[in-house]
Amino acid sequence: MRHYKKQYEMKDSTNISGHLSSFPWASFFPDLLWIIFWLTIIFLSKDFIKSAITTLLYRLKHGAGVKIGSFELQGLKVTAGKEMQNNHFKTTYDKDGLREKERAKFYAEQRGAMLVHRLYKSPKDGQLYEILIYIIPKKNANLIQVTSVDYYFGKFWGTKIFTSMDRSNGFGISTSAYGPFLCTAKINFNDGGNETVYRFIDFEMGDVAPIINVDGKE
């Protein structure tokens, strides 16, 4: 009985050895190595792939063009015309001057200090644009009466208030973002007064925004 069992085990091991020796290892190993290689590359670059897909989706969402090889998707375009009219709106007149009074009041409350922003394409992973937000004076106004500007961008910036006191650079502040957001800015004046203004930091000009280098230059 033991002799039979020993012969059976020898026969079984011989069959396994035969199967292993007949397996096409020469053709299998290169394919296996390539599979392991690409899985490793994907695993190591998963964060980059995720941020690239996120950036692409945001560019498409906000109307920017995309070109990959021979494939190109045109961005949103608005055709400029000589006259501000088309089939979708009409022109009337501010006969009672109400709208002009509202406009003048807006200028007066802000004392001619106007909140503006610029866009730059961001080199940072996961970010779409670098944004510079600052104050400029309207015609016949200046920033001498402004002492500081308190900026607030919301919860994604940790609900922090950022105060700029740099008059020489328009009380500017810069930040990174992958989506549009509302900026509120409290303009503080040297007589103790203040005025809070708002600006929606949109990406509508993102398609023609310059690329900012790591050192902060265009």
Q: How does the overall form come out from the CA principal axes? A: elongated
Q: What class would the helix/strand composition place it in? A: alpha+beta
Distance between the termini: 87 Å
Strand order of the largest sheet: 6-5-8-9
Per CATH, the class of the largest domain reads: Mainly Beta
Provide the low-confidence segments as ranges: none
The percentage helix is: 25-40%
Percent range for β-strand residues: 25-35%
Q: What is the mean predicted local confidence, pLDDT?
A: 77
What is CATH's topology name of the largest domain?
Answer: Immunoglobulin-like
The assigned CATH architecture of the largest domain is Sandwich
Number of helices: 4
- Classified in CATH, the superfamily of the largest domain is YEATS domain
SSE run: HHHEEHEEEEEEE
Structure, described:
This protein has helices at 2-22, 25-44, 46-61, 98-110, and strands at residues 66-68, 71-73, 113-121, 129-137, 146-152, 161-164, 173-177, 181-189, 194-201. The chain contains 4 helices and 9 strands. The model has no long low-confidence stretch (mean pLDDT 77). The protein has 2 domains: 2-73, no CATH class; 99-208, YEATS domain (Immunoglobulin-like). A hairpin with a 2-residue loop joins β1 (66-68) and β2 (71-73). It has a 4-stranded antiparallel sheet with strand order 6-5-8-9, with no helix packed on it. A 3-stranded antiparallel sheet has the order 3-4-7, with no helix packed on it. With 218 residues, the protein is of the alpha+beta class. The termini are far apart.
